[in-house]
């Protein structure tokens, strides 16, 4: 088990397992966690909601185009996404993970991955 946190330091974390552990604990999302120096592995489609911060992270291999990491929702719900709220990621690396959210969030992600201030 990965455990409920709230802090994880220098760990390899399989995101589907972390989400399952949260669901089994009665939580509909991963929330109020801090990850420092972690490698967060998918496959996973992350849905960062309110209060999520990415500080100095490697968001993953975009294969030459930042948009390859991003999925724009086509409706009001997105099946299979891993919702996160009030999570902080510090110097983490994401492997096999994509990101989804509002158009504003996706635009911020493009700027962040390309190195521009968000």
**Assembly state:** single chain
SSE-based structural type: alpha/beta
Mean residue pLDDT? 92
Order of helices and strands: EEHEEEEEEEEH
* Amount of helix: 10-25%
Tally of DSSP helical segments: 2
Number of strands: 10
Task: Please give the radius of gyration in angstroms.
Answer: 13 Å
CA-based shape:
globular
Distance between the termini: 34 Å
Q: Main β-sheet: number of strands, strand sense, barrel status?
A: 6 strands, parallel
**Unreliable spans:** none
> What fraction of residues sit in β-strands?
25-35%
Keywords summarizing the entry:
single chain, 118 residues, alpha/beta, six-stranded parallel sheet, four-stranded parallel sheet, 2 helices, globular
Descriptive overview:
This protein is of the alpha/beta class. The N and C termini lie far apart (34 Å). The strands form two sheets. Strands 2, 3, 5, 7, 8 and 10 form a six-stranded parallel β-sheet that branches. A four-stranded parallel β-sheet has the order 1-4-9-6, with no helix packed on it. It has helices at 15-24, 103-113; strands at 7-9, 12-14, 30-31, 34-36, 39-48, 53-55, 70-71, 82-85, 88-90, 93-100. It has two helices and ten strands. The radius of gyration is 13 Å and the shape is globular.
């Amino acid at each position: 088990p990965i455990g409920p946190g709230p802090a994880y330091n220098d760990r390899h974390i399989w995101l589907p397992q972390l989400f399952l552990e949260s669901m089994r604990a009665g939580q509909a999302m991963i929330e109020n966690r801090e990850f420092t120096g972690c490698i967060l592995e998918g496959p996973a489609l992350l849905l960062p909601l309110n209060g999520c911060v990415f500080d100095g992270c490697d968001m993953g291999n975009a294969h030459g185009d930042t948009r390859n990491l991003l999925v724009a929702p086509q409706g009001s719900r997105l099946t299979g996404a891993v919702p996160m709220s009030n999570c902080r990621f510090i110097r983490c690396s994401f492997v096999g993970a994509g990101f989804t959210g509002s158009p504003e969030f996706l635009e911020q992600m493009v700027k962040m991955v390309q190195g521009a201030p968000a």
